[in-house]
Design a protein that fits this description.
215 residues, alpha/beta, Rossmann fold, 9-stranded mixed sheet, two-stranded parallel ribbon, 39% helix, NAD(P)-bd_dom_sf, Epimerase, NAD(P)-bd_dom
């Protein structure tokens, strides 16, 4: 059983992950949030929660993560903020989280990125700053020496998950439910075939764990 430190617990994928950890029981969770009311709501629902901020210091994040075995980074600045927040959260926040993992002695790190973030030729022009942030955050993680997995989902949907995905180093543009992204994160935690790998993720016809074993 791993103790997982979730960064971005209040986001849409983060909220789904929190629910899955509670139901699954295979691993335990400590959720990182920025606001006291978020912390109180999580604790009232039975999830351990701590206050820390991606715009704060790597030391503060490391202290919040102490005693955990893995970090899952699902944080994002969201579509309604400016490019400054994209830099501060999606890039610098991710870099601080990697730093914090090293400071806290945590080797396992899962990053939720974006489809084709590794391939500049396929970046959406309208979202270029977001892709730049994801691209370099992923590169920082890949060079970190941590046991990483980088999951690059396509367009995110609120449809119910199917439990089936398509995962590969390169995929055409596609979409996937946030439920199935969360399922893939959980399944990746202790799947050795995802260690030190980065892959695109869309809706598909292969059960999550089976798809990960075929990477």
């Amino acid at each position: 059983m791993m103790k997982v430190f979730l960064i971005g617990a209040n986001g849409q994928i983060g909220q789904r992950l929190t629910g899955l950890f509670q139901k699954d029981g295979t691993h335990t969770l400590r959720a990182m949030v920025r606001k006291e009311e978020q912390k109180e709501a999580l604790q009232a629902a039975g999830t351990e929660a701590v206050l820390a901020d991606l715009e704060g210091s790597a030391e503060d994040i490391a202290k919040a993560a102490e005693g955990c075995d893995a970090i899952v980074f699902t944080a994002g600045s969201g579509g309604s903020t400016g490019h400054d927040k994209t830099l501060l959260i999606d890039l610098d926040g991710a870099a601080k989280a990697v730093e914090a993992a090293k400071k806290a002695g945590i080797k396992r790190f899962i990053m939720v990125s974006a489809l084709q973030a590794h391939n500049r030729a396929n970046w959406n022009e309208a979202l270029k700053p977001y892709y730049v942030a994801k691209h370099y955050a992923d590169k920082i993680l890949e060079a970190s020496g941590l046991t990483y997995t980088i999951i690059r989902p396509g367009g995110l949907l609120n449809d119910p998950g199917t439990g089936n995905i398509k995962a590969a180093a390169d995929l055409e543009r596609g979409s996937i439910s946030r439920d199935d992204v969360a399922n893939t994160v959980i399944a990746s935690l202790d799947e050795p075939n995802t260690y030190e790998k980065a892959f695109d993720l869309t809706a598909g016809s292969t059960p999550v764990r089976e798809a990960l074993k075929q990477l």
